[in-house]
Every structure is written in C-alpha cells, then in structure tokens.
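Subject: Mini-circle protein

B.,
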Amino acid sequence: MDTTMSGMGELLGERDNYADYLRSRREMFVAACEGLTPEQLALRSVPPSTMSLLGMVRHLAEVERVWFRRWLDGGDPERLWGPRGNDDDWNGAVGSQECVDEAWSAWRAEVAFAEGWLAAHDDMGAVVDADHHGRINVRDIVVHLVEEYAQHLGHADLLREVIDGRRSG
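Prediction pasted inline below.
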C-alpha cells in the first residue's frame, strides 16, 4: 500500500519510506562531519566521555554492520574494532588521516551493503532471530537504525558546535 510520503511529497511504499528516512539521517551525519581536520574529528566531547565525531563514524559503521550483515543477512562478520563491549570504536578514534580514511571507508562499505540489502527486500514484516534481541522484524531494525542516527545527530551537532561554532538547521 503506497500511502506514506517522503519529505519531497512523493508517495512511497513502506520500505522506500524507511530507506528515505535512513538515507536522510546518514546524509545529515556526513554533513555534520564535513570540512573538519582529523584532529577536529577526533576531539573528545566532555571528560570522561570518549565520544568524538570520528568515534561516531566508527560506531555507526559497526552498528550498520551488525544489524544488516549479521541479523538481516544472516552472516557472522567479525567486528571492525575489537570485541563487543570494549568500546574500541570510540577509544581507537585518533586524529590521524589514516584513522579517518579507514573509518569513512568502513562506514561507506557498510552503508552500501545496507542500502543494497534493503533495496533487494520488500517485506518489512519479515522476521529474523537476533540473539539477545529476540525475534524482530525488518521494519523494527530499520526504524532502530533511523533512531540510532537521530540520537547521534544530536551528539554530532553539539560536538560540531564546540569545534567551530557551526550549527545545523
């Protein structure tokens, strides 16, 4: 049933509507990081927090990887930055060009995989077994990803404002 509407006024089906929201949040995240040096991207928020924009790039790559490659595609990919719970995605975010390039490359690869997977699957009600998350449908996973990006966009806005005063919106 094509009853949902994107921000452009186009009628979209359910999957395409969710994909549009997710794409929009990803683009907003990229914009929050644009034009910064590796050192600025690695700048930590408020001690003792390890949160930085670069850490966020790494974290979101890991989130995309787990939800799409593992739970939706049924694979068993190794984590990009150390075992679950060790926070290496945040702790390993150092202000070098090599670290920045690696993080964005991983993020882009995971986003491309996720976009391809979603484009090939129409059934938002399909159910997968996601270990400690229990049985969950595709819709809930994609909505969770939108939520994950929305939450981190608030963090990214604050970090960016501290770095150079730029505010979104």
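The chain has one domain: 4-164.

T.
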